[in-house]
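Action item from last week, closing it out:
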Amino acid sequence: MKNLEVYNNVFINNFEISEDDLQGLEYQSISAWDSVGHMGLIAALEEAFDIMMDTDDIIDLSSYEKGKEILVDNYDIEF
């Protein structure tokens, strides 16, 4: 499975949304992405990509797009 598919599936499974909902998805734009949902998302991303995210990156991950940017820039994950 490609990294983009893995990334998308983390969001889809964690928030129980469809792939059509991913573009433009932002923190607190859906009820599932609250503070608790955010920590679940981080845990799922860390497990899926076998990484340990820095606190600043966890705080900065404020959208679907920003998450990809953080993973590319800070964790050498290619999409």
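Closing note: The radius of gyration is 11 Å.
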